[in-house]
Amino acid sequence: MAVQKTISHRIQRQQDIVSYLFMLPMFIFFIGFVLIPMGMGIVTSLFNYTMSDFTFVGFKNYVNLFQDKVFLRSIKNTLIIVVVSVPLVTVFSLWVASVAYKSTSTVASWTRAIFYLPVVTGTVPVVVVWKWIFDKYAGILNYICKGLGIIDQNIAWLGNQNTAIWCILTILFTTSVGQPIVLYISALGNVDSSITEAAEVDGASPLRTFWQIKWPSIMPTTLYVVVITTINSFQCFALIQLLTSGGPVYSTSTVMYYLYQSAFTLYQYGYANAMGVVLAILIGLFSTLQFKTMKTNVDY
Amino acid sequence: MKKSAIVLLLIAAMVMPLFAQGAKEAAPAAQSAATTTITWWAFPTFGQAVPGEYEKSVIAKFEAANPGIKVKLETIDFQSGPDKITAAIEGGTAPDVLFDAPGRIIEYGRNGKLVSLDSLFTADYRKDVNNDELLNACSDGKTYWMYPISASPFYMGINKEMWEKAGALQYVNLQGDRSWTTDNYVKALKALHDAGFVGGSVYCGGQGGDQGTRALVTNLYDARIANSDFTKYTIDSPEGIKGLKLLKDLVDKKYLDAGTDIVASGELQLFSQQQIASTICWGTSNAKNYASKDFTALSVPFPSADGKPVLEYLVNGFCVFDNKDAARADAAKKLITFICDDKSVGPESVVKTGAFPLRSSFGDLYAGNDEYKLLASWTKYYGPYYNTMKGFSTMRTAWWNMLQQIFLGTSSVEQAAGDYVTKANAAVK
Fold this sequence. Notes:
The complex is a heterodimer.
Chain A: H1 2-44, E1 47-49, E2 54-56, H2 60-65, H3 69-100, H4 105-121, H5 123-134, H6 140-147, H7 164-176, H8 178-189, H9 193-201, H10 206-217, H11 219-234, H12 238-243, H13 255-265, H14 269-295
Antiparallel strand pairs in A: 1-2
Helix pairs in contact in A: 3-7, 3-8, 3-11, 3-13, 4-8, 9-10, 11-14, 13-14
Chain B: H1 2-31, E1 36-42, H2 53-65, E2 69-75, H3 81-91, E3 97-100, H4 102-110, H5 123-129, H6 132-136, E4 147-153, E5 155-159, H7 160-165, H8 182-194, E6 201-203, H9 210-220, H10 238-252, E7 257-259, H11 264-272, E8 278-282, H12 284-289, E9 297-300, E10 313-320, H13 326-341, H14 345-353, E11 356-357, H15 370-377, H16 392-408, H17 413-428
Helix pairs in contact in B: 9-10, 13-14, 16-17
């Protein structure tokens, strides 16, 4: 009996070692390309780190950040993007998925393909198309709006401080809904039909069936969609970089874009890293809040 | 046990390529005892259809003449190239040779990332160039960081047919060196507007090609971007404010368009598509890239109050990064002098850049070309080269934001110019 136990322990240990060895390459990459850079980012945010200087300044970068009007504007813009895009993306993708999953498999596949297209197309081609749409001189949006009598003069949609951020949000929306729709179609398809059928037999309305049966069942997917959309919205950068450079008058400047500008245009690496730390804290806070408020409802 | 061995082998197969890659990269280091290998990062400045094509032919000639040196070429683009260079500098993987303009190069030099090129600026060389403004553009005032090869002015382009149709061409001086006045510029813009054309676009959606907007603003009433000893940015001067106010007025009257959503490339496309009647970002390279068969593009200097423009200009040149290896630095210097000074390769390289040689000994490389003869006559209008000033990067970022504030009316001209100068001057200290 004792011998058998020893052999069993040895096999278990061997299996553990093999498992860890499988994890090792990824673990090395994680340490080298995630943990160490994160640590370096935090440490260097306490330095006046430029191309020629590396002096310890304590929390000066952080103090300066909160006195920097452009940074504060960038935080405000980032929060607008998050607050608007996350609920919109979640609700819209849930609506599309709830319609699509009940359709024939051809319709569901087409829906997935159409909404997933902007995701796989890549940011640059998507931005080029949208740039044409918003173009002041030859853009189709001006053409339509003028045709409908909404405007009488062409508008520089991306060059106006009142419209630019909404243009960014529109593009972000189209590139963000693809993955949640695919996930929701899959999640709704996996809801146990015997429970929904039982509810329907008991006289529950479709709305009640959705809220009391389906919604709790797809809560893990919703949590994932909300957290991922929040993180992506916080890190909105490529659209800004390619379309507006943070303008006009900083109306589309986000924390990620300002961070990039500080590091790569102005060579203020320490200051940029301080922004990175603040952004990470913000994302962490939002994500924790989402986990806390949504997890209790998760019913596995 | 057998199973575990297979698993371990699989893991080894996954991990080994990483070490193999390291070994592969280590191999050239072993060769370096015999040959010195240097890396050349090149922006697409030689104007060929396939990036790197001309550079490769130069490298072949250079390696044939210098058997102990191997040159690895990497082409970069203007969009992502600058970020790549910054990342490489901080990551300790900077190239040995870079072909760029003084704005960035002097910044790298001032921050101790480059090898001094003072030894290349001999008395003979300086005598051959014989232009202090151009030579000063290669230095931070103490050390030469860039070895120049060619230079060309930035100027305006106008759509001859549009201007003719609008009756605006009468206001342009088409005689001599074509210099003209601000008053005539305003009259021409009014004529264009009355004829239903958009006179031009003052693009300010980002940094690209911002020298064009600076040249326009400063020339209108003879303002300067910086003071004469390059210690202060000065667009808040009465002349600067007057120029900015005129521009705002022209935009408000719709004589000009405020390009708050485009940069120079967008404006050049509008010019090429005949959506606007003039461009403020014309140059030898853009004149080639945005040429159109549908209209005639006339080159004119920027209009100025007294008819004597002060032109901005491009200086192309090379720098050598300090990779703490004297052999590589020497090899890099050999390469850049070969490209710039070799009797055959030097003039050929200058022509490929589409600009004018700095060395007078190269003679007239564009003999018989009237356009280039005209452009060469504008050398006398070259202004002080402020791109090597401290805080240049900060100033550039603040510049187009200032124009946006003015055109969109979020700040008064005085307020916007004051904020811009405060920001830019803070970076000079």
